[in-house]
Design brief:
Protein name: Gap junction protein
Pfam families: Connexin
Largest sheet: 3 strands, antiparallel
Subcellular location: Cell junction, Gap junction; Cell membrane
Order of helices and strands: HHEHHHHEEH
Function: One gap junction consists of a cluster of closely packed pairs of transmembrane channels, the connexons, through which materials of low MW diffuse from one cell to a neighboring cell.
CATH class: Mainly Alpha
Number of helices: 7
Number of domains: 1
Radius of gyration: 22 Å
CATH architecture: Up-down Bundle
Organism: Calypte anna (Anna's hummingbird)
Helix content: 55-70%
Shape: elongated
Strand content: under 5%
CATH superfamily: Gap junction channel protein cysteine-rich domain
Mean pLDDT: 81
């Protein structure tokens, strides 16, 4: 995950956003990106080593861990951050296209290349719809993979090659569950902000029409 790339991307998007869009950028940067780098990554970095089962049957502990944690929380969260941030590149590229077009023709073709209207409005709305889709998709994925954002202290596993039902213990379950709830809450907040911005732009454009 590239810290520099996401910082540059979010800073660039901030130039072309509405007031609601700037709030979204602040939420992603402060409550998601910084929390991921400062705290969340440390909580899950040793999750495999700290997962223990009450039997030393070779392979049993590994298959149980893979069953209860099919995808790492932290890698899935990193992927979510990247996926919800990259649709904003569409807006950045469109503005760059407008500026290069004016430079190529050596004349003013738009009232302002960064003004959200015409084709740029369609691009902006598309980026918002993609963000909302990714947020909802990842929330559903987290809910399905981790049984409704729950991290139990004890899980029972009877998967081959375990000879019988064994008890497996997850380290720091309360701490991990708090971060999962925080992840879900920030995702919901971003969905609300994106929906608000989408509604605002559509309403503003309808009034002008």
């Amino acid at each position: 995950m590239s810290w520099g790339f996401l910082c540059d991307l979010l800073s660039g998007v901030n130039k072309y956003s509405t007031a609601i869009g700037r709030i979204w950028v602040a939420v992603v940067f402060i409550f998601r990106l910084l929390v991921y780098i400062v705290a969340a990554e440390n909580i899950w970095k040793d999750e495999n080593d700290e997962f223990e089962c009450s039997i030393r049957q070779p392979g049993c502990e590994n298959v149980c861990f893979d069953h209860f944690f099919p995808v790492s929380h932290i890698r899935l969260w990193a992927l979510q951050l990247i996926m919800v941030s990259t649709p904003s590149l569409l807006v950045v590229f469109h503005v760059a296209y407008r500026e290069n077009r004016e430079k190529h023709h050596n004349q003013k073709l738009y009232r302002s290349p960064r003004r959200i209207d015409g084709g740029l409005l369609c691009t902006y709305l598309t980026s918002l719809i993609l963000k909302i889709g990714f947020e909802i998709g990842f929330l559903a994925l987290f809910y399905k993979l981790y049984n409704g954002f729950k991290v139990p202290r004890l899980v029972k596993c009877d998967i081959n090659p375990c000879p019988n039902t064994v008890d497996c213990y997850i380290s720091k379950p309360t701490e991990k569950m708090i971060f999962l709830y925080f992840l879900g809450a920030t995702s919901c907040l971003c969905i609300v902000l994106n929906l608000s911005e989408l509604s605002y732009l559509i309403f503003k454009y309808s009034i002008k029409r």
